[in-house]
Specification:
The complex is a heterodimer of chains A (about 70) and B (about 675).
Chain A: E1 11-17, H1 21-29, E2 37-42, E3 49-53, E4 56-60, H2 62-66, E5 68-72
Antiparallel strand pairs in A: 1-2, 1-5, 2-3, 3-4
Chain B: E1 2-10, H1 16-24, E2 41-47, E3 50-56, H2 68-79, E4 84-90, H3 94-105, E5 111-116, H4 118-123, H5 130-137, E6 140-143, H6 152-165, H7 177-187, H8 196-207, H9 211-216, H10 220-237, H11 241-260, H12 271-279, H13 285-303, H14 305-325, H15 332-350, H16 353-368, H17 371-385, H18 393-399, H19 403-408, H20 416-425, H21 432-445, H22 451-476, E7 486-488, H23 497-516, H24 518-531, H25 543-555, H26 562-571, H27 577-585, H28 594-604, H29 607-619, H30 624-634, H31 637-666
Parallel strand pairs in B: 1-3, 1-4, 4-5, 5-6
Antiparallel strand pairs in B: 2-3
Classes of the chains: A alpha+beta (about 70), B alpha/beta (about 675).
């Protein structure tokens, strides 16, 4: 399942990040990497999404959310 | 006295700037989102017999050197060789903060970890094993609550102590055996370096293809060798080596964080999340944003008009006072220079200072409350259509104040090409200097109810043009796709009025400096051009008028006469000078009698001409300060020249169209 399809309020674990290395490192520096547990704070199914990683919040563009594969929990 | 250089580094929002302020006693703005602390700021502090020079580096998440601010931080530590790096860490957010720490420790400088925001940790009743952190990383640690000034003195003492003794270097994260074996292979290529830390640093940086290290190394043999090693590793792991190294660092952090904090804080819905449900709502978010923008401009113009009146009166009194005490017969030329040149020139600019202060104050509130990140979220869909993302909107918003800090605020952008495109288009966003000219011209030609609409439409034209220009440049010049949109969303903060005022002052200082230097200088030049030859019969015989008249054939199709032309020449120095210039042309007696000037303009020009004049000012050639900063930030005279020329041609073209089409309708 793609991260961009995760509904607001749902939890998931990151499985795959299909992005270039620079983006992967950037995400890692914000604590988002493989096996990270995330909570979808906001997904309007249009525009960017807001994710929670523990107490942090990050914004991801929709294109990027489309390239991240997750497993809903 | 012994001198010690200290670099202050940490993530955005870790309280770094607050600590910097406490350490140096020099207070300035709090860095709230990537890109605020753009210039390296330094302060001096004396403790016992040592002088500490503390340098505030930009807030960054990693040292991978993709964005300009990461490069600035990395190059500073490698080239300037500080005696100590103080790594400020948000203790309530250890996992994220320590990522940068692992990279910093590889740089081989003494390092001191300053665990800030301990109050949040205490409030959560988390226990933190600081001793374990110290021993596992082999570094010195200080805990503090910066906003309450707790622990700041201890930080200072420990910092000077470590820097003197040269201890606390920290550890290097151990990668797995396969990688370590390859690293030692690379290390062995550098026989002439005896420092083990430096060897490892070079080895890792070479694996990561760090441009800074690669540039210094001009050895084909070593480069080929490293290429081979990389290929072997990447084949084995099916992943880029930089990513693997980062994964290992991250795993290392995760493993120690679990031992440092007993009770981990998991996801919990916060007040900030609840506010965001409204402010980033898919239907209400955008209207709320527009209302906030509208209120800011209302506030700037209507509240600002009162202090503006006071300043205007003050300058009038001052001019009259000089006129009164200085008899006309004594040094008439010098008297004319002081009253008509300097007081008129500088005064005409300074009376708009209240407007600018209010605008910058509002922008500071937006930043300090963290609303800016929400604006980026809301506008992402819109910005996406032109091939940029929401984050790029932040420099544009600052651009309403002044293009110079706005261009500097593009440094956080990861994609060089997006950054360049944004820099090129930024002068189209109507800055406060252009606003100054509009606030003079609009009331002279438009009835009161239409004034806000005209002003708003000018802003809108600027934004629409900026969007179009970005879109076109992205298609023609750079086809490559943008860097994905990733941004931290910090929780809301109650902005401190004090901080916002400091922040505002920081930016307005630039404006005042401009009034004191560029505008002062140009006032004198313009005064001279407008006053000589001395035996002139009236203003139209001066050198200035002659230049303006020579330009008339070119600018006539735009509806401009020599008076407008001369003021356009002066606008290259700075947009505000236009007013001073018009004041001199019309020989306004009272130094800043805006009403009289407006009256004169109204008699000379039609409404269409006035609008075209404003349109040209909005689009045309940026001021000297903008050209200079574009050159500095793009590191190229060519781009600065390109920006200068394309804006000039665009302004000419659009104003030409509007004037000619307008004439048809008027007939």
């Amino acid at each position: 399942m793609k991260l961009s399809n995760l509904k607001t309020g749902a939890k998931a674990k990151i499985q795959k990040i299909l992005e270039k290395k620079e983006v992967k490192i950037k995400l890692m520096s914000l604590s988002l990497t493989l096996q990270t547990e995330v909570v979808m704070i906001k997904n309007d199914f249009k525009g960017p999404v807001i994710l929670a990683i523990d107490q942090n919040r990050i914004i991801l563009g929709r294109d990027l959310a489309n390239k991240i594969e997750i497993e809903e929990q | 006295m012994k001198k010690i250089k200290i670099a202050l580094i940490g993530n955005p929002n870790c309280g770094k700037t607050t600590i910097f302020n406490h350490l140096t006693g020099f207070r300035h703005k709090i860095a709230n989102y990537p890109g605020v602390t753009v210039e390296k700021k330094s302060g001096i502090k004396k403790i016992d017999d040592v002088e500490l020079e503390i340098v505030d580096l930009p807030g960054i998440y990693s040292l991978s050197a993709q964005a300009e601010d990461e490069k600035i931080a990395r190059s500073f530590i490698l080239d300037e060789k500080p005696d100590l790096v103080i790594n400020i860490i948000d203790a309530s957010n250890l996992e994220k903060s320590l990522f940068l720490t692992t990279q910093l420790m590889e740089l081989g400088k003494p390092i001191l970890l300053a665990l800030n925001m301990m109050d949040i940790v205490e409030k959560r009743k988390q226990e933190m094993d600081i001793e374990f952190l110290k021993s596992i990383l082999e570094v010195e640690v200080v805990t503090l609550v910066a906003i309450k000034k707790r622990g700041v003195n201890e930080l200072l003492k420990k910092a000077s102590n470590i820097a003197k003794k040269k201890i606390s270097f920290g550890i290097n994260v151990k990668f797995d055996d396969v990688i370590e074996k390859e690293i030692s292979k690379i290390e062995n290529l550098f026989l002439d370096t005896s420092d083990l830390r430096e060897k490892r640093l070079i080895a890792i940086k070479l694996l990561e293809e760090d441009s800074h290290v690669l540039k210094k190394l001009n050895n084909c043999f070593i480069l080929n060798k490293i290429k081979e090693i990389k290929e072997v590793l990447e084949k084995k792991y099916q992943e880029h080596i930089e990513v693997i190294l980062s994964i290992r660092r991250h795993e290392f952090i995760k493993s120690i964080v679990n031992k440092i904090i007993v009770k981990q804080e998991k996801y919990k819905k916060t007040t900030s999340d609840k506010i965001d449900e409204i402010l980033t709502h898919k239907l209400f978010g955008f209207p709320i944003f527009l209302v906030i923008m509208f209120l800011i401009f209302q506030f700037t113009f209507f509240i600002g008009s009162y202090p503006m009146m006071w300043t205007e009166n003050l300058f009038n009194y001052f001019g009259s006072f000089i006129n009164y005490i200085w008899p006309i017969a004594t040094y008439p030329l010098l008297r004319s220079l002081v009253v008509n040149g300097i007081i008129t020139g500088v005064g005409a600019v300074l009376i708009f200072l209240p407007n600018i202060l209010i605008l910058f104050f509002c922008i500071s509130i937006l930043e300090d409350s963290e609303y800016m990140a929400r604006a980026a979220f809301i506008l992402d869909r819109l910005m996406h259509k032109i091939g940029l993302h929401g984050k790029s909107f932040i420099p544009m918003l600052i651009g309403f104040g002044c293009s110079v800090p706005a261009i500097m605020a593009t440094r956080f952008m990861e994609s060089k090409k997006d950054r360049l495109v944004t820099i090129l288009a930024l002068p189209l966003v109507a800055c406060s200097a252009k606003m100054v000219v509009f606030t003079l011209l609009i009331p002279a030609f438009f009835a009161r109810p239409y004034q806000p609409i005209v002003l708003f439409s000018l802003y809108l034209i600027g934004i629409v043009l900026a969007i179009l220009v970005i879109k076109i440049f992205k298609i023609i010049l750079f086809k490559e796709p943008s860097f994905s949109f990733v941004m931290e969303l910090p929780s809301y903060k109650l902005p401190s009025i004090f901080c916002s005022i400091l922040h505002m002052w920081d930016r307005s200082k630039e404006y005042l400096k401009k009034a004191g230097t560029l505008i002062f200088g140009f006032s004198i030049i313009l005064w001279a051009l407008g006053s000589f030859p001395i035996d002139k019969k009236n203003i139209s015989e001066t050198y200035l008028a002659k230049i303006g008249k020579t330009m008339e054939p070119i600018f006539k199709p735009l509806g401009f006469d020599w008076k407008i032309n001369t003021s356009l020449i002066s606008s290259i120095a700075s947009k505000e000078v236009i007013i001073a210039q018009l004041g001199i042309i019309y020989a306004i007696k009272d130094s800043s009698d805006v009403k009289q000037l407006q009256q004169n303009l109204k008699e000379d020009y039609s409404l269409l001409q006035a609008f075209c004049f404003m349109l040209f000012i909005l689009i045309s050639t940026p001021c000297i300060a903008t050209v200079a900063i574009t050159k500095k930030e793009t590191n190229s005279y060519l781009w600065a020249l390109f920006q200068f020329l394309y804006l000039g041609f665009l302004a000419y073209f659009i104003t030409f169209l509007v004037y000619q089409i307008g004439l048809i309708f008027i007939r």
